[in-house]
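Worked example

This section walks through a single chain of length 728. The input is the sequence exactly as stored; nothing has been trimmed or padded.
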Amino acid sequence: MSATELSTAALVGTGDVPSEPPLRVNRTQAGIHARNAAPLETDLSDPQLYFNRELSHLKFNTRVLEQALDTAHPLLNRLMFLLIFSSNMDEFFEIRVAGLKRNVLLGDASTGADGRLPKAVLAEIADVAHEQIARQYQILNDALLPELETQGLRFRRRTQWTAAQKSWVREFFDNEIMPVISPIGLDPSHPFPRLVNKSLNFIVELEGKDAFGRAGGMAILPAPRSLPRLVALPKALCEEGFSEYIFLSSMIHSHADELFPGMRVRGCYQFRLTRNADLSVDPDEVSDLASALRGELLARRYGSGVRLEVADTCPDGLADFLLAQFELEPQDLYRVKGPVNLTRMMAVLGDVDRPELLYRPFTPGVPKAFKSGSLFSAIARGDVLLHHPFQSFCPIEDLLREAARDPDVLAIKQTLYRTGTESPIVGALVEAASQGKEVTVVIELRARFDEADNLGLAARLQEAGAIVIYGIMAYKTHAKMLHIVRREKGALRHYAHLGTGNYHSKTAKLYTDYSLLTANPQLCADVHKVFQQLSGMGKARRVDKLLHAPFTLHERLVEMIDREAQHALKGRRARLIFKCNSLTEPKLIQALYRASQAGVECDLIIRGMCCLRPGVEGISDNIRVRSIIGRFLEHTRVFHFHNDGAAETWCSSADLMARNMFHRVETCFPLLDRKLATRVRKDLETYLVDNCQSWLLKADGNYELQCPGGSAPISAQETLLYAYATKN
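Given that input, the structure is written out below as tokens.
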């Protein structure tokens, strides 16, 4: 047996569920002891006990960048990680840095739990971001591009063009670029133009006089947004055995002088401005959310500047001039040794037919219950849990298609947060509405960077006859719920889907998430009540099995953590395992500190931001925090409590953040089927023994990659792939 097979057999199991499944104990120096008295009184709100949220976010981005150096990943996937880092940093500046800058501008001196002022956080961000962005280009230039070239993938610089390639570039420039590019001279009648967020531009130094007698100075060249940033050379022009690419920026740079006839181009330097892209809609001043968002989407393109990237060869004088135009500080300037828009290189991944340079494909598994017959019949026989992407997302889409065509289905209700423009889910809802079924869809228009798509989806559903609701104005609807009402044998039967991830078929192949399909009357009744609350008005309705933000989720999580602490104080085994994307909410962190002080063994699998400081003697020495970064984006939210042997396992749409607890509509659902709960606990245990892609958070805030050493290498994601999916 291979190491993966051994770990699968040990951790995931063969399907037989023991009456009392063993529980791996995360042993620390403290161990598990009965406590004779309450823990020593400590100020758990002390800022020293908290990491800064934004700096923790940067640490996560750095862990993503590290994957570009990890030769365990295929080469093109290493490039992908580097480009994801670039995309993540764009969003970090657009939202997080923009928010801090706004606070400084407004004189807001409020601090987070860590006590840092916004201005101080911005300075620390600048130090880390400059270092990591410089590393990004160093990795690209010194590692990835040379390795890609050894594999026959070459990115040609201007100095490397052959005569035939120069001729082809000239023709491409004349036919494709020249007709659509618009140089903008800077003079009193041509002020500095408004440039679109993250657009590629050039600042050009000119010498001489133009046709109107104006003396040369400076001009701005916005790169045409309609053209690809990376262009594949025809095979006939490539060296044998190579696929070759040229950047649009190189083509423009090479022929910039042709855009200013009779004048001399003294210098041409690329730059890109990142703007504030956070939408701001005041619920007290908006009568029509959709119309307000359409206006805000236009404004997003021209928000205030937050970061300026320029070519590393750009003279200081020109860089300072650009900083002044965008009202930015020197720390906001990032000199880059390469294209300023690296994310556009993602096109290579879809263009190159080199499967040996990518992860091996696999076929997601499908439970036996879903391989034949009606999905309704299968779900009626018992709850079904899917673990994406190891198991297929198709059953959810198939269930909706079956519901749309089933004459016995009377009504469908669903929430949509991020779905995709060509979603099979939306197609099925449109078909159901067209068939005359009662279709109600709660669409969250404010899903960041998906607002425009969601406005389009809302219009499409409304045209088909569906009732479209935009949720609650002051609370984003982030819950993932589907409710189907079907007539069976003269009575109404309810079916529901509850998930930790979005109804998006593409991300379901890339993100890890759980999907519960159930006909449990209590769970379905709770889902129905939540939908009624979203569409109607009235006091918060009591739900019996679900936890429901912003009403009961935070309070009950704190209670369950404290319950575990009470078990520890009485000398009982006390244990919890949490897995989510982010942990930032102070009250939950304080509850975890109390649990640790009481002797509860706490394993936290937090992919991204974590403000809890582990390993502090007497406070958090029973807490371990790890982050898993690998092929798939870890997105499941699971909360497992040992509860003195009466274990409880919950899955949730919510992260452990204030926004999820208090400002969003979220659901957290229990796994009532014991076999399913045991299976999820074993999945969690698999992550806890990962020694290939697991990063352990230290008390000083740094993350340490766990290595096999003398042990067999165990990758949680590979183990789960082996257990649930079929490799091709």
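What to look for: The two ends are 19 Å apart (CA to CA).
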